[in-house]
Amino acid sequence: MKSLKSAVLSNFDQPWMPVFVLLLFFGLFVSVVWWVMRKDSKTYYDKVEQLPLQDLEEIKQVEGEQND
Amino acid sequence: MNTNANLESFSYDDKIVRMFLWATLLWGAVAMLVGLIIASQLSFWQANFGLEWLTFGRLRPLHTNAAIFAFTGNGIFAGVYHSTQRLCKTRMFSEGLSKLHFWGWNMIIVAAAITLPLGFSQAKEYAELEWPLDIGITLIWVVFAINFFMTLKQRREKHIYVALWFYISTIITVAVLHIVNSIEIPVSLMQSYPVYAGVQDALVQWWYGHNAVAFFLTTPFLGLMYYYLPKMINRPIYSYRLSIIHFWTLIFLYIWAGPHHLLYTSLPDWAQTLGMVFSLMLWAPSWGGMINGLLTMRGAWDRVRQDPALKFSVLAITFYGMSTFEGPLLSIKSVSALAHYTDWIIAHVHGGTLGWNYGLLAAMMLYLFPKLWNTTLYSVKLANAQFYTATVGMVLYIVALWAAGITQGLMWWAIDDGGQLVYPDFVETVMRIMPLYHIRVVGGTLVLISFLMMLYNLIKTAQKGTIDDSKVYQAPAMDQNAEPNAKMHRKLEGMPFVFTVWALIAILVGSVIEIAPSILSNNYIVKDSRIKPYTPLELAGRDIYVKEGCYTCHSQQIRPMADEALRYGAPSEASESIYDRPFQWGSRRIGPDLARIGKKYPDVWHLRHMMDPRSVVPKSIMPVYTWLFTNKTEYKVLTKKLKVMKSLGVPYTDHEIQKAVAIAKAQAAEITRGLADAGIDMKMQDKQIIAMIAYLQRLGTDLMKEKQE
Question: Which has the closest alpha carbon to B292: B257, B339, B243?
C-alpha cells in the first residue's frame, strides 16, 4: 500500500499535471459558457425564467365535485 | 377536455413554512442579543457579571452558532419549504419528515444554547457543538435531504429552476463539510478529540469554516434571491444564462478558498497560495450573482420607494457585492498580513451576516408574512423605520470595526528606527480602539432594535390576518416525454439526481486536492524530535483552555513577520502542533498570541492574572476567572483521555496511561509547592488553575530544548 501511495504522491511533482488541469478546467469553463450562450437556447431560457412567476390559480371546490 | 383529464389536485403545506418563520424571528433576536452582550463585554469587561457561563469565550460560540444555524438556518428552511413547493407545483413529500426536521433542528439549537454556556465545546469555530449534537445534526440533515429530494422527484414541473440548484448544492455540500469536519473520538458523553491534529485539523476546520459561509450563508441565500426577487417585482431575473454560469463557477471555486484563513501560518505555502488564488477568482462568480440581482431591478427602481421588502432586497444584494469584493481582497497575502487577527475580519463577516443575510431574510419575511396570512403588512412606516435603523446600525458597526482593525494592525506592525516595537505593550493597542468598541455597541444595539421592530410588525401582521390552508391547486402531472430531443444541460436540469452527482463532483475536486495530501503524505510537515506530547496535567489544562473558549481571543500561531518575532518570538512551525487536538491557532487577537507564552512569566504571574487580570496588566479587558480556583481538575478521566489520544497516534506509553492520574497529581503538587511563597495552600493542587498553569507554561517551550539530531 505504501509504495502505491508514494507512487501516487510522487506524481504531484510532475510539472505537466497542474498545466493539464488548468487547461482542463479552463476548457470546461469555456465550453459551459459557449453552451449556455448558444443562440437556440434563448427561447427555452425565456420560458424557464418565468417559472417563479407562474402562480397556480386557486381552485374553488364545489360541493360534490370530483377532482382527479 | 383531454388536458383537464391530466390535472391533479393538491395543496401546499404552508404550516411548516410559518413554523420556520417564527423560529427565524425568535432565534434572530436571540443571536443578536447574545452578540450585543459579548460586544458589551469588550467595552466593559465586567459585563459577564463574574459568571463563568456568560464569559466572552463561552458566549461567542453561542452567538456565531445562533446567528448561522439558528437564525439563518430556520430562515433558509422557511424559504426553501415555501419556494420549493411552488417551483415544483407539489406539496412537500412528507409532513412527518417536515415536522421532524423542524423540531429536531430546533431541539439541537436549544441543546446548543444550554451546552455552549456550560463549556461543552470542541473549540473549532462554528463547529463547537459536541459529538452527540454532531450526530443529531447529521440525522436531521438527512431527514431534510430525503424530504427535499423526494419532493423534487414528485414535482409537476419538468425544469428545475435555478433557485433549486442552489438548494441542492447546499444540502449535499453542508452534509460533506459537517461529516468530514466532525470525525472525532468520544472521551465522555460531552467531550471528544478530533481525529485531525495541528495543521491538518486547521486545514479541515477552515475548509469547513469557510464553506459554512459559502454553502450556508451564500448558496441558499442566492437561491432565495433568485426566487423571491422576481416574485416581489413580478418580472424574471435579468439573465438566466448568467445564473447557470455563476452557479457552476461559484460552487466549483468556493470549496478551494478555505486556506485564506491560514495565510502566513505554518500551513504549507502551496496550500496557502491555492487558497488565495481561488479566493481571488471567486470575485467573478460572486459579482455575477450580485449583478444579476441588481439588474433584475432595472425598470422597477421606483418601487423601492414604496416597498420596504424591496429596500431590504437592494440592501442585501449591495452588501453581498461589498462583502464578496472585500473577501478576495482580504485573501491577498499582503492584505491578510495586516488584517488577519484584527477586527477588520469581524467587520467583514458582519457585512455579510447582517447586510446580506439579515437583509435578505427581512425582505423575504416582509413579503411572506402578508402572503401567508392573507393580509397586508401591519405597518409600512414601521418597516421603513426598521430599514433605516438597521442600515445606520450596520454602517456604524462595520465602519467602527474597519477603523479598529486597521488601527490595531498598524500599531502591531509599527517598528521604530532602532528596530524596536513602537507599542511593545499589547494592551496599548487595545486601549486605542476602545472608543470604536463603544461605537460597535451602539451600532449593534440599533440593529437589534431594528430586528425587534420587525418582530412586532410581523406579529401584528399575523394577528390581523387569517390562515387558510384549505386552498387547492391543480397542475398536470409531469410528462416525462415532453422533450425527447433535449440536449445535455437541458436534460441535466430535469434530472435532480444526476445533477446532484455533478454538483458533488464539482465540490469534491477542490476538497480532495487540498486535503488529501495532508492525510496521505508523510512529508506534509517536517517533524521535530524535540516536540513531545503533553503531560497528563497539561492535557487536563489544555481541555480547560478549550472549554473556556480562550481561542476566541488568543491565537497560538506566530506569523513569520518582524513585528511578531519581536513581540512573540520565532514563527510557529507545523511540527509544534502535531499533538494539538483540536488545534488552537485562533482567528482573532483580542489579547496577545500565546504560542510561546510558556516560561515567559513565573507561575505566580499566571495565578494572579487568572484571579484578576488587572493586577498584572492594569488596562486589561480580560474577564476574571475566579472559578478556576474553586473548580476541581477532573483527574479520573485522564486515563481515558490518554487512551483515546494513543488510539489517535499520540505516543503515550502504557506506563504513562496507567499512571496518568498519579503523574498528573505529582506535577500539580510540584507546581503548587512552587506557589507557596505567594501564600498558596497545598489544598489548591487539585484545582483547575494549577492544570491551566501547567498547560500555559508548556506552550512553545519544546523548541527551547537542544536539538537532538
Answer: B243
